[in-house]
Fold each of these.
Amino acid sequence: QQPVQSPQAVILREGEDAVINCSSSKALYSVHWYRQKHGEAPVFLMILLKGGEQKGHEKISASFNEKKQQSSLYLTASQLSYSGTYFCGTVSTSGTYKYIFGTGTRLKVLA
Amino acid sequence: EAQVTQNPRYLITVTGKKLTVTCSQNMNHEYMSWYRQDPGLGLRQIYYSMNVEVTDKGDVPEGYKVSRKEKRNFPLILESPSPNQTSLYFCASSLSGAGANVLTFGAGSRLTVL
């Protein structure tokens, strides 16, 4: 089952902050975050592994709460270039190596 | 340049006419996978491959076939395409299938089945 992301969509003004949440019904051992511009391929932002978190990109950071099976992506002082759709992703823990993406969050930054 | 290359980028075909979308990576990655992206449904995995001759189904494998005869190539085959396979397709690869490894995506292939 897909991780659920919230909000589904958000509109910001330049300089404002945003938080995107990713919640799974199953245990998460790692969480990946990707951003996709319209009509383009998803691009990796950062990865969070069990037991820690990792900042990976510009003014974007993330947290990972294994017990709550949740991850959050924090975008501070948003820029126009942050616009796009954000996906969390994870490898299935069912013993296979299926990769599952979250439902996605559309973010638009206005000047 | 490290990359994943998909071809064709755009294709319009008719119902029942077999087609193959090729995917090639030059990073010596073990894990390769295919996804389809549809409005409102996000990215869904079709098939993945852990290594040469090792493939397994993702969440939406019906109507698709794959093969992994060489490490660098992972073609997606639609034996008898139907209109519900109209979608944007992405190939992606990573060093391995473990959760610590990042997916690198191809540019995408937009397929329309009439």
Note: The interface with chain A takes residues 31, 33, 35, 42-45, 48, 50, 56, 58-59, 90, 97-100, 102-108 of chain B (CB under 8 Å).
Amino acid sequence: SQQGEEDPQALSIQEGENATMNCSYKTSINNLQWYRQNSGRGLVHLILIRSNEREKHSGRLRVTLDTSKKSSSLLITASRAADTASYFCATEANQAGTALIFGKGTTLSVSS
Amino acid sequence: KAGVTQTPRYLIKTRGQQVTLSCSPISGHRSVSWYQQTPGQGLQFLFEYFSETQRNKGNFPGRFSGRQFSNSRSEMNVSTLELGDSALYLCASSWQGSAGNTIYFGEGSWLTVV
């Protein structure tokens, strides 16, 4: 079952613009992770934000987490054509072990 | 440091056959988990192994099984293949497999069932 729901499902922007993707989830979480997937490839880990954190930065990425609203956002600033990919949020529930629950993803297209 | 390695990358099987996929985690990682990705269902958790023991299991039929060896390498097996098993199968590894560990994915194994 899907835990996270990304919004929008698809996003098309020009190089240099910012891209914002949102993710909502349903249950309590330990942390939330964002991944990128280029067409037909594996998942690349972008950033992990813990449930007690509100904002995290990594290079051109900024992630926010609002546990009261059960939502997170991923902002990619100054986007490049190479950012074209699908982006997924994944949550890790309060349980032992590792079982990520993914949303359906946002497909980002950056044109030059 | 080598990443998560999955073999084979591509394979085609016939309905009713069985398939085994292999995964070598990042050196030092003890947790290995498997995911299935399809256009219709998205990314779904299959199971996780830690120190050769299955620790978590997703909602998949018993035709899907796995195991982990003492060197942390893992295999997953799908028996009596169905057309709906066509998917990208992703393996992921993490150091402890506990909450908060970064989870790294391999490039996946593309399975086509005809």
Note: Chain B has a mean pLDDT of 94.
Amino acid sequence: NAGVMQNPRHLVRRRGQEARLRCSPMKGHSHVYWYRQLPEEGLKFMVYLQKENIIDESGMPKERFSAEFPKEGPSILRIQQVVRGDSAAYFCASSPPYQTDNEKLFFGSGTQLSVL
Amino acid sequence: AQSVTQLGSHVSVSEGALVLLRCNYSSSVPPYLFWYVQYPNQGLQLLLKYTSAATLVKGINGFEAEFKKSETSFHLTKPSAHMSDAAEYFCAVSADSSASKIIFGSGTRLSIRP
């Protein structure tokens, strides 16, 4: 049973480009969470999605950032017109249906975004 | 509001020595407290969790943590370090068990000397 898969592992973008980060949850999981870890800081919650629905986006920056979790395929975190301050590790986690307890979270190994 | 502070971004101990990773929290309500571990090139894994039951919580791989309300601390310990314990450790706090409300510390990298 594969774990949470994130790709790419490393992503390099120039300022102004778009970044797309992908997360495939564990098989059978229908909840996806995105977290961001800035240098020297802890992981910070960004957004919580279920299939085709954004449940909680209280941690998402108001501009340039968006997330989706379509009926088919991986969850996508999209950052438009990236700036150097977007450089961070982005982690995805998933949990089973009806279980939003953080004890049931399974994390991916993250995508390291570097903006030149 | 909740917050968590991990003292020491890098801790190095000898194999067989005591491991002590420090974590202090701030919470306006009785907290849920967690320790997560991240091994190289892997995702975070839950090591242990405190939810107001026993103050001494035992986790996987011989780790344990003690909740001390008077000191607002939740330090992680292991009596004897093993080379395989080398990893990044994150302390976290939450007002409830919801995954979207958990707040992580900045992490402590544990190195083990042969």
Note: The mean pLDDT of chain B is 91.
